[in-house]
Amino acid sequence: VYNTTFEHNYETIMMVSQENAEREKKHLQTLVAMRVDGIIISISQSTHDPQLFQWIRQLGIPLLFVDRRPEPPLPGFSSVLVADREGAFMAVEQAIRIGYRKLGFVGGNPTVNIGKNRFLGFEDALAKHAIPVNHEWVVQAGYGKEDGYQGLMQLYRNRPLPEFVLAATYPVALGIYEAAKTLGIRIPDDIDVICFGDSDVGRFLSPAISVVRQPTHELGSKAAQMLLDFITAPEVREEQDVILPTELVLR
User: How many helices and strands (H and E) does the chain possess?
Assistant: First the structure.
């Protein structure tokens, strides 16, 4: 985002909500008070009220969702997303192909698109291979490390454990790794993990984790370019949904 906006003589102001909807609301109010030209937002896991976004649009400030948006989608707003459902399907089908039949899902929630669509991809893969969903192995909580930690703890309490878990995000996977260490569970011998999203340190985890890699650079640059187009040509602010592909990286 920064590089694209800087090339067009715009400055970027970054604000971090830390998954807190009230903090997100205050950040947006501050940006409006600063009279910014446009806003790119990846909503928090606890965002539920769309009225603030409608208010910003009524003020004439273009607002674009990137990666995360409310579920169901708000009409009239554009977004740049990744193929969450397809990426999750790809990861789970890979697990099925190598022999896993007891499959679980940890993280996410259905009020945000990535939680809803990644779980749908999980369900799609199981349905294709006629494997029923065991809801004892599904923990839809959130997107952070603590959510992953508590998710594996819940699976452990609900034993037997699944053979494989799809983690909704990379931080969720970190929490699963930490909980596994606490419980003395071996990855991948006792439970295998693939996560959605990557990190530079992911390959250095022990064992290294396989991931559904998101095109993060393209997400930012495409979102910035779309927002710049909305700013410079407000008369053609047509609703657009751009979906970028993902890649399964096996380690």
Answer: 8, 10
Mean pLDDT lowest for which of 86-95, 106-115, 196-205? 196-205
The residues, ordered by sequence, that sit 6+ positions from 186 with a Cβ below 8 Å of its Cβ are 180
Residues 6+ apart with CB under 8 A from 29: none
159 Cβ contact partners less than 8 Å away, ≥ 6 residues apart: none
Contact 9, 29 (CB under 8 A): no
Q: 147-183 pLDDT, tens per residue?
A: 999 999 999 999 999 999 999 999 999 999 999 999 9
- What confidence tens digit (pLDDT) does each residue in 190-244 have? 999 999 998 876 667 788 999 999 999 999 999 999 999 999 987 777 899 999 9
Claim: this prediction has a pTM higher than 0.85: yes
85 contacts 125 by C-beta, under 8 angstroms: no
Q: By the 8 A CB rule, do 17 and 25 touch? A: no
Higher pLDDT, 112 or 199: 112
Residue 232 tokens, joined: 């410079």
**What are the residues whose beta carbons fall under 8 Å from the beta carbon of 47, sequence distance 6 or more?**
21, 24, 70, 111, 112
Instruction: Please give the C-alpha separations between residue 21 and each of 17, 32, 87, 147, in angstroms, as whole numbers.
Output: 7, 17, 27, 17
Q: Which residue has the tokens 């559904």?
A: 212
Element (H, E) at 40: strand 39-41
Q: Which long-range contacts (CB under 8 A, 24 or more apart) does 187-193 make?
A: 190/161, 191/152, 191/161, 191/162, 191/163, 191/164, 191/165, 192/95, 192/100, 192/163, 192/164, 192/165, 193/164, 193/165, 193/166, 193/167
